[in-house]
Amino acid sequence: MTDDVQLSIGLPNFGTWPGGDWRGFLDVARAAEDAGIDRIVLVDHVVMGPHTDKYVWGRFPTPPEAEWPEPLTLLSAIAAVTSRVRLATGILIAPLRGAALLAKTAATLDQISGGRLDLGVAVGWQREEYDAAGLDWDRRGQLLTDTIAACKALWTQTPAAFKSETVNFTDTYLMPKPVQPGGVPLWIGGTLNKRNLARIVESGDGWIPIMGLSTADMGRDVATIRQALADAGRDPAALRVQGPVPMVKGEDGKFDLARTLEGAPEVIAAGATALQLPIQAFCAGPADAPAFFADARRHLDAVLGR
């Protein structure tokens, strides 16, 4: 059903796009809501090491000294000036926060926003962040698995108890709980390997495919996840998927929004429930954002016949 598909816009909470005024991000978020955008997505790095050349998905978008505000803090400010648009991370490096602190922070933000938070999580790619946090880089996968499962326990149990290799607690109270039933939705990011599939089945509500995955491969992986959910007794139709729309350039060599969104039906057919676009590919800065949001909403509705 295309009526259920959300238009999801990635906002660059890093580098120079905001023009040095992070308070201006609130105006951008308000403009997104006014234009009928369904979700806004921020990304995460806690600290940066010098070796951005180790980023394997192309050229890293900033130098290591670039500004990069913490996404949950910025989303809290955005929550205060909006009322409808969903607030998402895509992704948050969950193990860097620790389970109890992350559960508390996310639950508070869900309360403040009236139940609008989607928490996209993954392990990240940079060892230096784990070193700075005093965490074992080689155990990052286990840390992610345990962190998100522990968050689920804290959000849904009163008192909560959880036991794993890296997180353990009993008779523990976390209040307030998130507004959303079952806790904040967890969207697991990354390649659909065996461990990520297990995380989705055990604790996840959605999946964020790894950057660069083709639409056809995304569709194959969505089918795999749905089958695994069904095998585990969970509803496969409830799976949420953040699907990037393949970018298309026009004759001038610039990314063409209308042509790009013509590919939306194929991404939806592959299983996407939230169509993802990066705003910085189409407008140079915050001043251009209101027009971009309006055009994106209009073009997508036209393509989908809405």
Describe the structure.
The chain is an alpha/beta fold and 306 residues long. It has one domain: Luciferase-like domain (TIM Barrel), CATH 3.20.20. 37% of the residues lie in helices and 16% in strands. The protein is built from ten helices and ten strands. The strands form two sheets. An eight-stranded parallel β-barrel has the order 1-2-3-4-7-8-9-10, surrounded by five helices. Strands 5-6 form a two-stranded antiparallel ribbon. α1 crosses α2 and α5 runs parallel beside α6. The longest helix is centred in the middle third of the chain and has 17 residues. The model has no long low-confidence stretch (mean pLDDT 96).
Defining traits:
eight-stranded parallel beta barrel, SsuD_RutA_monooxygenase, 10 helices, flavoprotein, two-stranded antiparallel sheet, monooxygenase, alkanesulfonate monooxygenase activity, alpha/beta, TIM Barrel
Summarize the entry for a quick read:
With 306 residues, the protein is an alpha/beta fold. Helices cover 37% and strands 16% of the residues.
Topology:
Blueprint: E1 6-10, H1 24-34, E2 39-42, H2 71-81, E3 86-93, H3 99-113, E4 117-122, H4 127-132, H5 140-156, E5 160-163, E6 168-172, E7 186-189, H6 194-203, E8 206-208, H7 215-231, E9 240-244, H8 257-261, H9 264-269, E10 274-278, H10 289-304
